[in-house]
Task: structure prediction
Amino acid sequence: MVSIFITAFIVGGLICVVGQLLFDVAKLTPAHTLCILVVAGSVLDGLGLYEPLIDFAGAGATIPITSFGNALTHGAMAEAEKHGLIGVVTGMFEVTSSGISSAILFGFIASVIFKSKGKV
Amino acid sequence: MVARGLLTFKTTPSIVATGVTAGPLEKKSQFVDKFDKIYEDERCEAKTNEHGHAKMMEDACMIALSKVDSVPSDADFMLIGDLINQMTPSNFAAATVGIPYIGLFSACATSVSSLLMAALLTETGMSKCAIAGASSQHNAVERQFRYPNEYGAQKPETAQWTVTAAGVAAVTPYKKGFPSIECGTIGCVIDLGMTDPLNMGAAMAPAAADTLTRHLTGHNKDVKDYDVIMTGDLGKTGFELYKKLAGNQGIDVTKNFRDAGKEFYGADPSFLSGASGAGCSAAIFLTEVIDKMRAGDYKRVLLIATGALLSPLSFQQGDTIPCIAHAIELTMK
Amino acid sequence: MDEKKYAKLEKEISPKRPLMRNIIFAFLTGGTICLVGQFVSLFYMTYFDFTQQTASNPTVATMIFFAMLLTGFGLYKKIAQFGGAGSAVPITGFGNAVISAAIEHKTEGYVLGVGGNMFKLAGSVILFGVFSAFIVALIKTILVKFGVVSW
Result:
């Protein structure tokens, strides 16, 4: 029980270190970096490696943006298993809907409540 | 080198008054005591950043005019600019103030290009009083050129902080006891292939060094002739590069060189490489430098404002950052 | 001075990015965010009927809610200046990208401003996530059809 907190911290931290290397060494913009990580998560799931990582690290694997690529791929593959090729398209958002729907919802709420400020 | 782009003003028009307004964060500036007005609200109580931007400019104009007991109807021309798309803040400010107006864009070098244009109009005898200046507003510039203000992007040490400030000068025919504009040099656009918008100082430094060399050779001057040679907003990194480039040309950079961007927020590390923005050079040139001239500390100064002529579009399309620097020489007779 | 020479000089004089410091801070910040996520998902597993796998949905939504508060009160960019990728890579960074754009463009109205610009930063992540999911799932489906691998 305790060990999953430790692995969550370490795995999550390490995925962020990969992101930092893409920022500082490869000199990529945040947008480029996040796109690469999402694609990486998707490919890892295609190879069947992301689910074991979630079992091992819990939130350390589900919180980084890589899990977004994993969830999209996972949904697409699960539907493809049931309905064949057409499922690839229809199943995509089955698993990952919460990230996008909550970002849209909270984004809208925030725009009603808050104003942007130029503080250091 | 053939001397081109050189301006000499025989009638030496004078800067008789200045007006400088700044936002609340600029209280951290080491020059804050010299500014005429500091707003408590970053939008100057206006609804949007851009309206606040325009208001800052209007107030700076009114303050400058009031110092010479004038009203907008006494001024013949208004030459101002900012960094926002199509310069809407300046346009709105000009609509409110109601002085015949031409918007000028040289990015952050507008503070000097506007003074040069005002001096030219005065030299021809067609202007008895011209308003020249530039402004920038942090939030408005940031959201246009970079990211939303609340977006979390880590900035490297070379990044600069756009100031919220407006600086305006009233230029009239020569008047004794005021700093007067003796000559100037219009910059060439210099592009040495820099592409990093988080290291603008490095992109602008070659333009500043080029204009400095051209000014010195063209007007047959030496660095020793000036009490100070101040650049606009190169920041800590850009200023070092500029001194290196000028030094390579055989110019003695050890004394009297200052940079407004580097000094604006003092040594505060949270502002990284220092300040930038059209309001930065305008605010410092028109307070710190003009005040010292009027106090007799400076007899002859050279001001070089630098501007990065990029747009978010040109950056995203992978273009390099073309830069410009304009120089103006002020004397106290 | 030509471009190559200047690029060399610029590299020499510009301060280097403190790589080691950035990596350590990114590790700590990212690790901490994931640790908070683990507590949130423990909460959902203990009090609701979720497993380690299925708890990720409500956890992600909760983390984005936290990101909204931090962004709205101007704290997220401070964490980002300190933590770099440590705050950009977790899903809270995705939330911050959407939420900050939404707040910023409020002045252009809710339809043209907030609606039109909400995904201007995060949209590319969705595009490439969806596209690579499509390709990966397509390849897998074809491979299964030909009996190379099984589901």
